[in-house]
Amino acid sequence: MITPKITEKFREIQTPFYYYDLDVLRSTLDILKKESDNSGYKVHYAVKANHNPRILKLISSYGFGADCVSWNEIAAAINAGFRPEEIVFAGVGKTDREIESALNAGIFCFNCESIPEIEVIDYLASLQKKSARIALRINPYIEAHTHKYITTGIEESKFGINTWELDNVIKKLSELNNVELIGMHFHIGSQITRMSVFKSLCLKLNELQNWFSSRGLFLEVVNVGGGLGIDYENPDKYPPIEEYFTLLNEFIDLIPGQTIHMEPGRSVIGQCGSLISRVLYIKNGSNTQFAIIDAGMTDLIRPALYQAHHKIENLSSIEGIYRYDVVGPVCESSDTFAKFIELPETKRGDFLAIRSAGAYGEAMASRYNLRELPSSVFSDDL
Ligand SMILES: *Cc1c(COP(=O)(O)O)cnc(C)c1O
Asked: Within 155-301, where are the H helices?
């Protein structure tokens, strides 16, 4: 059971706060470790999903690498014990300073998203008399069937290099002396729950393998990115990691000497976290009752940003069934966690748990309205 017991100690913590069940995280990491060891895949945890230092330390202790999207994330990862040689750096807008710092740190690879970016990396590497390892993030034109804000692999997306541009990229690379092409990279979106989407990615990837081979290019890294979804309706359910590995094993045609890399974020960290909040007021609306809680969109922005659904539980009450709109205190109508959901009779002072909030929760918290950032609490400490 992930839901925490309301102990004396629990009551004393100021709400709202993130509660992380480390047993759930460890079990998830155990599965990932077993699967990646068995298949020889390389895992880079996507730091942007949750950069809490204690979580990063635990994940790095499993020997995984890190996938970062800013220099600050790279620095946080190194601080938490990830080795620079196992860090990859993604993003469409890497700044010169970030590239310089990453070159200095000796990261494993830059996942590049455009020709102009490759030219800048080549130039900055030449100043350091280095050769930068790069992978091409290729846009495979696959519809991820997820929310449009987290769909990244379709043609009008700002992400990735279009396949019609690959000839130009290869030509450009032949003119550059300080970058070394070592891989192809994909990331087609997040919260992908249809396994058929990953199968389409594998088939597209095999086509691209042929494209590179026919030009005499060998790429040792085949990076499938992240995107594996979790079940927000069933917060106690683990993500289908085994099924995902089985599918990749079955459908990717590897060339000898190649390694599959992956960058899971949400599937690693999503289900182990809950946002814990207290009910401030129950307010009557004309058609509904509002449960106004002390957590808001500043603590967990996913419902406001992507109409995301998180299961909500009342930890203090089990009597009766009523319907509530669960809303936060922030001055925005989108500061709503759920509409017309069933909860037991809910009163001022009750604890609510907003489940499956470990990924893109604490990491996206802001101080809008000058609110405090939420704190974090770990099951091992209670
Ligand atoms: C966000 C991101 C990930 C992680 O995605 P999840 O859906 O959290 O698994 C992996 N790779 C890249 C390049 C990303 O931008």
From this structure: 166-175, 195-214, 241-251, 266-269
Do 260 and 224 meet the contact criterion of CB atoms below 8 Å apart?
yes
Is a pLDDT exceeding 90 seen at residue 3?
A: no
Q: Would you say residue 2 has pLDDT above 60? A: no
Question: How close is the Cα of 46 to the center of ligand 1, in Å?
Answer: 6
- For ligand 1, atom 5: residue with the closest CA: 226
Q: DSSP assignment of 140-182, as one string?
A: ------S-GGGB--STT-SSSEEGGGHHHHHHHHHH-SSEEEE
361 C-alpha vs ligand 1 centroid, how far in Å?
A: 14
For residue 69, give the ligand 1 atom closest to its CA.
15
For 71-117, what is each residue's pLDDT tens digit? Answer: 999 999 999 999 999 999 999 999 999 999 999 999 999 999 999 99
Global pTM? 0.96
Q: Which two tokens stand for residue 111?
A: 């996942």
The neighbour count for residue 129, using CB atoms within 10 Å, is 7
How far out from the chain centre does Cα 350 lie?
Answer: 31
- In order of their start, the domains of the chain are 4-18+271-381 (2.40.37.10), 22-269 (3.20.20.10)
Q: How far apart are CA 161 and CA 257, in angstroms?
A: 24
Q: What is the pLDDT of residues 291-317, one digit of tens each?
A: 999 999 999 999 999 999 999 999 999
How far apart are the CA of 159 and the centre of ligand 1, in A? 12
What angle, rounded to 10 degrees, do the helices at 53-60 and 22-39 form?
Answer: 30
Measured from CB, residues less than 6 Å from any atom of ligand 1 are 46, 48-49, 67, 69, 90, 187, 190, 225-228, 263-267, 359
> How many angstroms separate the CA atoms of 74 and 105, rounded?
9
Burial track 86-96 (b if 16+ CB lie within 10 A, e otherwise): bbbbbbeebee
Whether the CA torsion 349, 355, 358, 360 is positive or negative: it is negative
